[in-house]
């Protein structure tokens, strides 16, 4: 696996992207940064290339991939129609952390859509990703560049930890900004439906859409999610994650008790909670009143604690407003247990 280290020098950058694009045109897979998380890219029109993504990640074949594009022409090449709602969202939010599910016209390789008649497409808001897309000249299928089940990578080093030896290369663009994945919105139904909460908030979408629904399965474990990927266990750190839902005082009590029972506990806490704790190891994930910061740091924090160091990880819960919906969706999926005040 070639790791093209982050460079500020424009001729170096140029050479890196050329090399990565050449590999992609030879049906190899290359990881690249986006504004949300690192993606693992392959030519979306080549079944053999896309197959390599599934193999490198250990991803179930029934989980479709998001296709990344550099311009709207590439969207038209992949879909049978662009409904007005989708056009509106593209104009308002692209490039950006929003994936639109549209009717596929069959141009993408069959394994990209995992046999569905629809296709998820987004234009990433990252200069390296856009340059890579343009130089490759193909739409790129790219799921998050982690081993299936692990937290998504928000730094090149995370990709390296998971996929060294399994992929052709990693384009290093430093840390990603948003930190959680894109919002997936189904635009094939009369009323658009949020299938996965993400970087673009429901409140943000509502500014431009008269009505938007949320897949009810997201709040009810017994229902089957409309997005295949949402049914899998995800984002699991090395040691079991427990969520504590309650006051800071309740958190302090629970931590005290777990330590008293002889557990080695790692804590992920907001700045506000951290001020009230006298405990190590502890990772701060920003202010609970600045959920953008929490989103940015979340996956890195989940990767920080190693099995050899802690028996379990204790993390607080956050407001579900704005990007908090995505944060809590990921934490609930990553956690094995939730402790609540009765
Ligand atoms: O921010 C992101 O979206 C990142 C970066 C790399 O762009 N990508 C990402 O991809 O998170 P992935 O594969 O980890 O998640 C894709 C999600 C899955 O939940 C999948 O089931 C859903 O999108 N999806 C893709 N195509 C779909 C379709 N046609 N219908 C419904 N859900 C779809
Ligand atoms: Mg993923």
From TrEMBL:
Alphabetized InterPro entries for the sequence: DHBP_synth_RibB-like_a/b_dom (IPR017945), Sua5-like_dom (IPR006070), Sua5/YwlC_C (IPR038385), Sua5_C (IPR005145), T(6)A37_SUA5 (IPR010923), TC-AMP_synthase_SUA5 (IPR050156)
Catalytic activity line of the entry: L-threonine + hydrogencarbonate + ATP = L-threonylcarbamoyladenylate + diphosphate + H2O
SUPFAM superfamilies referenced in this protein's UniProt entry, alphabetically: YrdC/RibB (SSF55821)
Q: What are this entry's molecular-function GO terms?
A: ATP binding; double-stranded RNA binding; L-threonylcarbamoyladenylate synthase; tRNA binding
Record keywords: Transferase included? yes
Q: A single Pfam family, by name? A: Sua5_C
Intracellular or extracellular location(s): Cytoplasm
Per UniProt, the enzyme's principal EC class comes to transferase
The residues listed in the UniProt record as binding ATP, with positions renumbered to this chain, are: 59, 63, 144, 152, 196, 235
Keywords recorded for this protein, A-Z: ATP-binding, Cytoplasm, Nucleotide-binding, Nucleotidyltransferase, Transferase, tRNA processing
Q: Does the keyword Cytoplasm apply?
A: yes
| Record EC number | 2.7.7.87
Q: Domain YrdC-like spans what residues?
A: 14-200
For biological process, the GO terms are:
regulation of translational fidelity; tRNA processing
Could you name the Gene Ontology cellular component terms for this entry?
cytoplasm
Per UniProt, where does L-threonine bind?
36, 68, 118, 122, 142, 182
Extract the PANTHER family matched here.
SUA5 (PTHR17490), THREONYLCARBAMOYL-AMP SYNTHASE (PTHR17490:SF16)
What NCBIfam families does the entry give?
L-threonylcarbamoyladenylate synthase
* Family as reported in the entry's similarity comment: Belongs to the SUA5 family.
Function, as annotated, reads: Required for the formation of a threonylcarbamoyl group on adenosine at position 37 (t(6)A37) in tRNAs that read codons beginning with adenine.
Protein name as it appears in the record: Threonylcarbamoyl-AMP synthase
């Amino acid at each position: 696996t070639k790791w093209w280290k982050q460079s500020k020098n424009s001729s170096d950058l140029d050479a890196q992207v050329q090399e990565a694009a050449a590999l992609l045109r030879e049906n190899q897979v290359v990881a690249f940064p986006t504004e949300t998380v690192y993606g693992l890219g392959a030519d979306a029109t080549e079944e053999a290339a896309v197959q390599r993504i599934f193999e490198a990640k250990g991803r179930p074949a029934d989980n479709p991939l998001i296709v990344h594009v550099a311009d709207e022409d590439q969207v038209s090449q992949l879909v049978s129609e662009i409904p007005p709602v989708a056009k509106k969202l593209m104009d308002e939010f692209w490039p950006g952390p929003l994936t639109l599910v549209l009717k596929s016209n069959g141009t993408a390789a069959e394994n990209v859509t995992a046999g569905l008649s629809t296709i998820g497409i987004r234009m990433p808001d990252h200069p390296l990703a856009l340059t890579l897309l343009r130089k490759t000249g193909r739409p790129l299928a790219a799921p998050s560049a982690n081993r299936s089940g692990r937290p998504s990578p928000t730094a090149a080093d995370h990709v390296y930890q998971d996929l060294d030896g399994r992929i052709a290369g990693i384009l290093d663009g430093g840390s990603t900004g948003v930190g959680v994945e894109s919002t997936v919105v189904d635009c094939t139904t009369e009323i658009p439906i949020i299938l996965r909460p993400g970087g673009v908030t429901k409140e943000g979408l509502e500014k431009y859409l008269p009505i938007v629904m949320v897949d009810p399965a997201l709040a009810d474990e017994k229902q089957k999610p409309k997005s295949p990927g949402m049914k899998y266990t995800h984002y699991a750190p090395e040691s079991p994650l427990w969520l504590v839902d309650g006051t800071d005082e309740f958190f302090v009590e629970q931590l005290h008790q777990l330590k008293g029972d002889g557990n080695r506990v790692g804590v992920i806490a907001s700045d506000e909670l951290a001020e009230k704790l006298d405990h190590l190891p502890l990772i701060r994930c920003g202010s609970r009143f600045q959920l953008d910061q929490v989103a940015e740091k979340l996956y890195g924090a989940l990767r920080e604690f190693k099995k050899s160091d802690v028996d379990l990880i204790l993390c607080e819960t956050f407001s579900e407003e704005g990007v908090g919906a995505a944060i809590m969706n990921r934490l609930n999926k990553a956690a094995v247990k939730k402790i609540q005040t009765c």
